[in-house]
Specification:
The protein has 344 residues and is an alpha/beta fold. Helices cover 37% and strands 21% of the residues. The chain has helices spanning 14-21, 50-58, 87-95, 121-152, 156-173, 185-191, 220-230, 245-248, 253-256, 282-287, 291-295, 305-311, 314-319; strands at residues 2-7, 40-45, 63-64, 67-72, 99-105, 202-208, 235-241, 260-266, 271-277, 297-304, 324-326, 336-342. Helix 4 runs antiparallel to helix 5 (156-173).
Length: 344
Protein backbone atom coordinates (compact mmCIF):
# COMPACT_ATOMS: atom_id res chain seq x y z
CA UNK A 1 0.00 0.00 0.00
CA UNK A 2 1.35 3.40 -0.96
CA UNK A 3 1.87 5.71 2.00
CA UNK A 4 1.63 9.47 1.46
CA UNK A 5 2.61 12.04 4.08
CA UNK A 6 0.74 15.35 4.23
CA UNK A 7 3.28 18.01 5.22
CA UNK A 8 3.63 21.78 5.35
CA UNK A 9 4.24 24.70 7.67
CA UNK A 10 1.95 24.96 10.71
CA UNK A 11 -1.55 26.28 10.07
CA UNK A 12 -1.73 25.88 6.27
CA UNK A 13 -4.60 23.37 6.12
CA UNK A 14 -2.89 19.97 6.38
CA UNK A 15 -5.33 18.49 8.89
CA UNK A 16 -8.31 19.87 6.99
CA UNK A 17 -7.04 18.26 3.79
CA UNK A 18 -6.41 14.99 5.64
CA UNK A 19 -10.03 15.01 6.83
CA UNK A 20 -11.20 15.67 3.27
CA UNK A 21 -9.11 12.92 1.65
CA UNK A 22 -10.03 10.33 4.29
CA UNK A 23 -13.70 11.46 4.43
CA UNK A 24 -13.34 11.83 8.18
CA UNK A 25 -12.91 14.34 10.96
CA UNK A 26 -10.14 12.44 12.71
CA UNK A 27 -7.66 15.31 12.58
CA UNK A 28 -8.18 18.43 14.68
CA UNK A 29 -8.06 21.55 12.49
CA UNK A 30 -7.55 24.74 14.49
CA UNK A 31 -6.10 28.23 14.07
CA UNK A 32 -2.82 27.74 15.94
CA UNK A 33 0.57 26.13 15.24
CA UNK A 34 1.25 22.47 16.12
CA UNK A 35 -2.45 21.63 16.31
CA UNK A 36 -1.28 18.19 15.13
CA UNK A 37 1.37 16.52 17.30
CA UNK A 38 0.94 12.77 16.89
CA UNK A 39 0.31 11.98 13.19
CA UNK A 40 -3.22 11.04 12.16
CA UNK A 41 -3.47 8.05 9.83
CA UNK A 42 -6.28 7.20 7.42
CA UNK A 43 -6.64 4.64 4.62
CA UNK A 44 -8.48 5.62 1.44
CA UNK A 45 -9.89 2.93 -0.85
CA UNK A 46 -9.57 4.06 -4.46
CA UNK A 47 -12.84 3.24 -6.29
CA UNK A 48 -12.32 1.76 -9.76
CA UNK A 49 -15.15 0.46 -11.96
CA UNK A 50 -12.64 -1.52 -14.04
CA UNK A 51 -12.27 -4.06 -11.23
CA UNK A 52 -15.79 -5.38 -11.73
CA UNK A 53 -15.13 -5.93 -15.46
CA UNK A 54 -11.87 -7.75 -14.74
CA UNK A 55 -13.59 -9.80 -12.04
CA UNK A 56 -16.09 -11.09 -14.59
CA UNK A 57 -13.33 -11.92 -17.10
CA UNK A 58 -11.15 -13.66 -14.51
CA UNK A 59 -14.14 -15.45 -12.94
CA UNK A 60 -12.98 -14.80 -9.39
CA UNK A 61 -14.83 -13.91 -6.20
CA UNK A 62 -11.94 -11.95 -4.70
CA UNK A 63 -11.42 -8.29 -5.62
CA UNK A 64 -8.82 -6.14 -3.87
CA UNK A 65 -8.98 -2.42 -4.74
CA UNK A 66 -6.01 -0.09 -4.52
CA UNK A 67 -5.60 1.82 -1.29
CA UNK A 68 -3.56 4.82 -0.18
CA UNK A 69 -2.57 5.46 3.42
CA UNK A 70 -2.47 9.16 4.27
CA UNK A 71 -0.47 10.42 7.25
CA UNK A 72 -1.17 13.91 8.62
CA UNK A 73 2.25 14.97 9.93
CA UNK A 74 2.92 17.74 12.44
CA UNK A 75 3.76 21.19 11.03
CA UNK A 76 7.41 21.91 10.33
CA UNK A 77 9.31 25.11 11.13
CA UNK A 78 12.72 26.50 10.16
CA UNK A 79 15.37 24.68 12.19
CA UNK A 80 13.54 21.34 12.18
CA UNK A 81 16.69 19.54 11.00
CA UNK A 82 18.29 20.73 14.26
CA UNK A 83 15.31 19.69 16.37
CA UNK A 84 13.38 23.00 16.42
CA UNK A 85 9.64 22.78 17.01
CA UNK A 86 8.60 19.19 16.44
CA UNK A 87 11.42 18.75 13.93
CA UNK A 88 12.82 15.41 15.04
CA UNK A 89 9.36 13.86 15.12
CA UNK A 90 8.43 15.43 11.77
CA UNK A 91 11.52 14.06 10.06
CA UNK A 92 11.05 10.60 11.53
CA UNK A 93 7.42 10.52 10.35
CA UNK A 94 8.22 11.69 6.84
CA UNK A 95 11.03 9.16 6.48
CA UNK A 96 8.41 6.40 6.68
CA UNK A 97 6.24 7.57 3.74
CA UNK A 98 6.59 6.78 0.03
CA UNK A 99 5.45 10.15 -1.30
CA UNK A 100 4.97 13.68 0.01
CA UNK A 101 1.83 15.79 -0.36
CA UNK A 102 2.96 19.29 0.64
CA UNK A 103 0.20 21.79 1.43
CA UNK A 104 1.10 25.39 0.62
CA UNK A 105 -1.09 28.35 1.49
CA UNK A 106 -2.25 30.34 -1.56
CA UNK A 107 -4.97 32.54 -0.06
CA UNK A 108 -5.21 35.72 2.02
CA UNK A 109 -7.23 35.68 5.26
CA UNK A 110 -6.47 37.99 8.17
CA UNK A 111 -8.37 35.68 10.52
CA UNK A 112 -6.04 32.74 9.91
CA UNK A 113 -2.54 33.22 11.30
CA UNK A 114 0.44 32.47 9.07
CA UNK A 115 3.42 31.61 11.27
CA UNK A 116 5.81 33.50 8.98
CA UNK A 117 3.67 36.66 8.89
CA UNK A 118 2.85 36.81 5.17
CA UNK A 119 1.64 34.68 2.25
CA UNK A 120 4.49 33.43 0.09
CA UNK A 121 4.13 29.80 -1.09
CA UNK A 122 7.60 29.60 -2.67
CA UNK A 123 9.24 30.77 0.56
CA UNK A 124 7.17 28.18 2.45
CA UNK A 125 8.21 25.43 0.02
CA UNK A 126 11.85 26.45 0.33
CA UNK A 127 11.68 26.46 4.16
CA UNK A 128 10.55 22.84 4.15
CA UNK A 129 12.87 21.83 1.30
CA UNK A 130 15.85 23.36 3.12
CA UNK A 131 15.09 21.38 6.27
CA UNK A 132 14.72 18.14 4.32
CA UNK A 133 17.95 18.82 2.38
CA UNK A 134 19.84 19.53 5.62
CA UNK A 135 18.54 16.28 7.12
CA UNK A 136 19.64 14.42 3.97
CA UNK A 137 23.08 16.04 4.09
CA UNK A 138 23.53 14.77 7.62
CA UNK A 139 22.40 11.28 6.58
CA UNK A 140 24.74 11.25 3.55
CA UNK A 141 27.72 12.41 5.64
CA UNK A 142 27.13 9.65 8.20
CA UNK A 143 26.74 7.03 5.48
CA UNK A 144 30.00 8.10 3.82
CA UNK A 145 31.82 7.66 7.12
CA UNK A 146 30.22 4.24 7.56
CA UNK A 147 30.96 2.97 4.03
CA UNK A 148 34.52 4.25 3.50
CA UNK A 149 36.22 1.38 5.32
CA UNK A 150 34.40 -1.24 3.21
CA UNK A 151 35.14 0.70 0.02
CA UNK A 152 38.87 0.87 0.83
CA UNK A 153 38.93 -2.89 1.38
CA UNK A 154 37.78 -3.41 -2.23
CA UNK A 155 34.08 -4.05 -1.67
CA UNK A 156 32.56 -3.23 -5.10
CA UNK A 157 29.10 -2.44 -3.73
CA UNK A 158 30.54 -0.09 -1.11
CA UNK A 159 32.68 1.61 -3.79
CA UNK A 160 29.60 2.23 -5.96
CA UNK A 161 27.78 3.57 -2.91
CA UNK A 162 30.64 5.92 -1.98
CA UNK A 163 30.85 7.21 -5.58
CA UNK A 164 27.14 8.09 -5.54
CA UNK A 165 27.27 9.57 -2.03
CA UNK A 166 30.21 11.77 -2.99
CA UNK A 167 28.16 13.11 -5.93
CA UNK A 168 25.11 13.60 -3.72
CA UNK A 169 26.92 15.55 -1.00
CA UNK A 170 27.83 18.66 -3.08
CA UNK A 171 24.49 18.42 -4.91
CA UNK A 172 22.59 18.64 -1.62
CA UNK A 173 25.03 21.21 -0.27
CA UNK A 174 24.03 23.53 -3.12
CA UNK A 175 20.42 23.37 -1.88
CA UNK A 176 19.18 20.93 -4.52
CA UNK A 177 17.00 17.93 -3.71
CA UNK A 178 18.17 14.35 -4.22
CA UNK A 179 15.48 13.66 -6.84
CA UNK A 180 17.01 16.30 -9.16
CA UNK A 181 20.41 14.65 -9.49
CA UNK A 182 21.15 13.01 -12.84
CA UNK A 183 21.43 9.29 -12.08
CA UNK A 184 21.39 5.97 -13.89
CA UNK A 185 18.72 3.37 -13.14
CA UNK A 186 21.30 1.46 -11.10
CA UNK A 187 22.14 4.57 -9.07
CA UNK A 188 18.45 5.30 -8.50
CA UNK A 189 17.99 1.77 -7.19
CA UNK A 190 21.02 2.22 -4.93
CA UNK A 191 19.75 5.58 -3.69
CA UNK A 192 16.58 3.93 -2.39
CA UNK A 193 18.70 2.29 0.31
CA UNK A 194 19.78 5.72 1.58
CA UNK A 195 16.16 6.61 2.52
CA UNK A 196 16.69 10.25 1.61
CA UNK A 197 13.76 12.56 2.32
CA UNK A 198 14.26 14.66 -0.82
CA UNK A 199 14.37 11.58 -3.07
CA UNK A 200 10.63 11.05 -2.51
CA UNK A 201 8.11 12.18 -5.18
CA UNK A 202 6.26 15.38 -4.26
CA UNK A 203 2.81 16.78 -5.03
CA UNK A 204 2.17 20.39 -3.99
CA UNK A 205 -1.42 21.05 -2.89
CA UNK A 206 -2.09 24.75 -3.49
CA UNK A 207 -4.62 25.70 -0.83
CA UNK A 208 -6.80 28.49 -2.27
CA UNK A 209 -9.91 30.26 -0.99
CA UNK A 210 -13.14 28.45 -1.84
CA UNK A 211 -14.25 31.35 -4.03
CA UNK A 212 -11.00 31.07 -6.06
CA UNK A 213 -11.10 27.33 -6.77
CA UNK A 214 -12.88 27.63 -10.14
CA UNK A 215 -10.22 30.07 -11.39
CA UNK A 216 -7.30 28.71 -9.37
CA UNK A 217 -4.90 28.70 -12.33
CA UNK A 218 -5.21 32.52 -12.44
CA UNK A 219 -4.36 32.82 -8.74
CA UNK A 220 -0.92 34.57 -8.60
CA UNK A 221 0.22 32.32 -5.74
CA UNK A 222 -0.75 29.17 -7.67
CA UNK A 223 1.03 30.52 -10.74
CA UNK A 224 4.21 30.90 -8.70
CA UNK A 225 3.94 27.28 -7.56
CA UNK A 226 3.26 26.15 -11.14
CA UNK A 227 6.43 27.91 -12.31
CA UNK A 228 8.39 26.37 -9.44
CA UNK A 229 7.14 22.88 -10.38
CA UNK A 230 8.14 23.40 -14.02
CA UNK A 231 11.74 23.91 -12.96
CA UNK A 232 11.90 21.03 -10.48
CA UNK A 233 12.14 17.34 -11.36
CA UNK A 234 9.69 14.83 -9.88
CA UNK A 235 7.12 17.36 -8.67
CA UNK A 236 3.53 18.24 -9.59
CA UNK A 237 0.84 20.51 -8.19
CA UNK A 238 -2.94 20.54 -7.78
CA UNK A 239 -5.17 23.41 -6.57
CA UNK A 240 -7.45 22.53 -3.65
CA UNK A 241 -9.63 24.57 -1.28
CA UNK A 242 -9.51 24.10 2.49
CA UNK A 243 -11.78 26.98 3.52
CA UNK A 244 -14.53 24.90 5.08
CA UNK A 245 -13.77 21.37 6.27
CA UNK A 246 -17.29 20.13 5.64
CA UNK A 247 -17.02 21.05 1.97
CA UNK A 248 -13.56 19.52 1.60
CA UNK A 249 -14.88 16.14 2.73
CA UNK A 250 -16.47 15.98 -0.73
CA UNK A 251 -13.08 16.35 -2.46
CA UNK A 252 -12.95 14.04 -5.48
CA UNK A 253 -10.86 10.85 -5.22
CA UNK A 254 -9.02 11.82 -8.40
CA UNK A 255 -7.28 14.68 -6.60
CA UNK A 256 -5.91 12.22 -4.07
CA UNK A 257 -4.04 10.35 -6.83
CA UNK A 258 -2.96 13.13 -9.18
CA UNK A 259 0.58 11.77 -9.40
CA UNK A 260 -0.26 8.04 -9.29
CA UNK A 261 -1.58 5.41 -11.63
CA UNK A 262 -3.07 1.93 -11.39
CA UNK A 263 -2.24 -1.40 -12.93
CA UNK A 264 -4.01 -4.72 -12.36
CA UNK A 265 -3.33 -8.40 -11.83
CA UNK A 266 -6.25 -10.65 -12.72
CA UNK A 267 -6.58 -14.39 -12.28
CA UNK A 268 -8.88 -17.04 -10.85
CA UNK A 269 -7.50 -16.45 -7.36
CA UNK A 270 -8.18 -12.69 -7.29
CA UNK A 271 -8.37 -9.42 -9.17
CA UNK A 272 -6.24 -6.72 -7.55
CA UNK A 273 -5.41 -3.09 -8.25
CA UNK A 274 -1.88 -1.87 -7.54
CA UNK A 275 -0.84 1.77 -7.13
CA UNK A 276 2.43 2.95 -8.65
CA UNK A 277 4.05 6.25 -9.56
CA UNK A 278 3.69 7.46 -13.14
CA UNK A 279 6.73 6.59 -15.23
CA UNK A 280 7.75 3.45 -13.34
CA UNK A 281 9.35 0.71 -15.39
CA UNK A 282 8.28 -2.94 -15.25
CA UNK A 283 10.66 -4.27 -12.54
CA UNK A 284 9.82 -1.43 -10.15
CA UNK A 285 6.09 -1.87 -10.81
CA UNK A 286 6.49 -5.59 -10.09
CA UNK A 287 8.22 -4.73 -6.82
CA UNK A 288 5.03 -3.35 -5.24
CA UNK A 289 3.71 -6.93 -5.23
CA UNK A 290 6.89 -8.36 -3.70
CA UNK A 291 10.55 -7.37 -3.70
CA UNK A 292 11.39 -10.80 -5.21
CA UNK A 293 9.38 -9.83 -8.30
CA UNK A 294 11.66 -6.82 -8.82
CA UNK A 295 14.94 -8.55 -8.00
CA UNK A 296 14.25 -11.59 -10.17
CA UNK A 297 12.26 -9.87 -12.94
CA UNK A 298 12.43 -11.60 -16.33
CA UNK A 299 9.43 -10.39 -18.38
CA UNK A 300 5.97 -8.93 -17.95
CA UNK A 301 2.97 -10.26 -19.85
CA UNK A 302 0.91 -7.15 -20.62
CA UNK A 303 -2.53 -6.40 -22.05
CA UNK A 304 -4.27 -3.06 -21.72
CA UNK A 305 -7.50 -2.91 -19.75
CA UNK A 306 -9.22 -1.37 -22.79
CA UNK A 307 -8.23 -4.27 -25.07
CA UNK A 308 -9.00 -6.97 -22.48
CA UNK A 309 -12.41 -5.53 -21.60
CA UNK A 310 -13.30 -5.08 -25.28
CA UNK A 311 -12.17 -8.57 -26.37
CA UNK A 312 -13.52 -10.30 -23.26
CA UNK A 313 -10.72 -12.78 -22.47
CA UNK A 314 -6.98 -13.23 -22.39
CA UNK A 315 -7.25 -15.87 -25.14
CA UNK A 316 -9.09 -13.43 -27.42
CA UNK A 317 -6.52 -10.72 -26.63
CA UNK A 318 -3.72 -13.12 -27.60
CA UNK A 319 -5.48 -14.04 -30.86
CA UNK A 320 -5.89 -10.35 -31.68
CA UNK A 321 -2.18 -9.67 -31.04
CA UNK A 322 -2.94 -7.42 -28.08
CA UNK A 323 -1.20 -9.60 -25.49
CA UNK A 324 2.53 -9.01 -25.42
CA UNK A 325 5.78 -9.63 -23.55
CA UNK A 326 7.64 -6.61 -22.22
CA UNK A 327 11.13 -6.38 -20.72
CA UNK A 328 12.89 -4.33 -18.07
CA UNK A 329 12.70 -1.06 -20.00
CA UNK A 330 8.92 -1.12 -20.43
CA UNK A 331 7.17 1.84 -18.77
CA UNK A 332 3.82 0.83 -17.30
CA UNK A 333 0.73 2.60 -18.66
CA UNK A 334 -2.45 3.42 -16.77
CA UNK A 335 -4.75 0.39 -16.74
CA UNK A 336 -2.21 -2.25 -17.79
CA UNK A 337 -3.14 -5.80 -16.78
CA UNK A 338 0.03 -7.73 -15.97
CA UNK A 339 1.46 -11.17 -15.22
CA UNK A 340 5.11 -11.18 -14.12
CA UNK A 341 7.74 -13.80 -14.94
CA UNK A 342 10.55 -13.87 -12.40
CA UNK A 343 13.02 -16.17 -10.70
CA UNK A 344 14.21 -16.08 -7.10
Amino acid sequence: MLKAGIVGLPNVGKSTLFNALTRSRKAEAANYPFCTIDPNVGVVIVPDARLAVLQAIAKTKVVVPAAIEFVDIAGLVAGASKGEGLGNQFLANIREVDAILQVVRCFEDDDIVHTMGSIDPIRDIEVITTELVLADLDAVSKRIDKSQKKAKSGDKEAQAEIALLQRLEPHLNSGKTANTIVATDEEKALMKHFQLLTAKPVLFACNVAESDLATAEQNPFVQKVAEFVRTHHDAAYVPISARIEAELIDLSPEEAQAFLQTYFTAGEKEVRAWTIKRGWKAPKAAGVIHTDFEKGFIKAEIVSYKDLSTLGSVAAARDAGKYRLEGKEYTFAEGDVAVFRFNT
